[in-house]
Amino acid sequence: MRRKRRRISIGLALAAALCACALLSAVGAGSADAAVEPSSTLFYSTADFSFRGKLWSVHADGSGRRLLRSGVVTGPSGVAAVLARDRKRILCLCRKDEIDSMRLDGSRMRAIGRRPKGTKYDTVELAANGEPIWVDERHDRLVMERPDRSHRRVVGTPRPGEYLESFAVSPAVDKVAFAAGSCGHGECWVNVWIQAIGGGSKKLAYRTAGERDVGGLQWSGDGRALAFVDFPEEEKGVEPADPNEHLLVYSGGKATEVPVAAPASPFPPFFSPDRSTLAVGGKRAGRIYAVAAAGGPPRLITDTGCRGGCLFGPSVFGWLRG
């Protein structure tokens, strides 16, 4: 269960009016019309209300949509899937307590490990090396385990008293980003930290202001940029000072907002291979849009047709050239 936090609104820490040129220098060359390589391929998951998931692929121009796997196990936050470090396989928690590997076309699925013991009701994600990672029951540390369950270790720790929430492991599996709630002096906030796998000093990437939460953390393929969403915390009977969701990219030591216009929605973000574009969701369920990192109108990639029939997703977990 999430701990309820009470916060005092002091406004947004970042202004939406930061110029596009600053963002371009931070996250790579962008374009105002979210241009992407037509031949590049996105991989994404969906899940219905029976908690059975599906894995899909689609070209960035919207063509060639293909169902890769159905009947995939769905956890508390959706399907756990990731592209392997060699970019030639999909890794997922696909069958019961298995960690599975398959080709990019969904064929030749085989078990490569087991889900960690005691995590049945936890949100478990997979790193690109196949290791599962999750927040421990006290919400004060991130834990990883080898797929064969031979070794479990702590790989990330917030400050004492902070409440660890969401997280993301870099594709190289050398660092982790996580959001952790904190309170003090009559106010509360969420810090976004970056820490080397295995511990060591933490770098503060972002701090919310007011009644806010942070989710959707996602690294770029080269590990040089981190995307996440700052959004209002839902509290019954309380109207947030800022009801909007804000997509931000941390790169080069600063976080910069990426404008996301309707009908697109910031959740959940995923970088294109060159970091010039992000895949995001839509105000209408089941859609995936491309948004230029420099801003500009969103472009529809695909409509999965979920509508009211999707419990989770679509959630992009991979984007490859060619």
Q: What is this structure's SSE topology?
A:
Layout: H1 20-27, E1 41-47, E2 52-59, E3 66-73, E4 81-83, E5 89-92, E6 98-103, E7 110-114, E8 125-126, E9 132-135, E10 142-145, E11 152-156, E12 163-169, E13 175-184, E14 187-196, E15 202-207, E16 212-219, E17 226-232, E18 246-251, E19 254-258, E20 264-271, E21 277-282, E22 287-292, E23 299-303, E24 312-320
Antiparallel strand pairs: 1-2, 1-24, 2-3, 4-5, 5-6, 6-7, 8-9, 9-10, 10-11, 12-13, 13-14, 14-15, 16-17, 17-18, 18-19, 20-21, 21-22, 22-23
Which structural class matches the secondary elements? Answer: mainly beta
Radius of gyration from the alpha-carbon trace, in angstroms: 19 Å
The total strand number stands at 24
Tell me about the biggest sheet? 4 strands, antiparallel
- How large is the count of helical segments? 1
Strand content: over 45%
Low-confidence stretches: 1-32
Query: Rough shape?
Result: globular
Report the span from N to C terminus: 42 Å
Care to give the gist of this entry?
The chain is mainly beta. Helix content is 2%, strand content 46%. The protein has 1 helix and 24 strands.
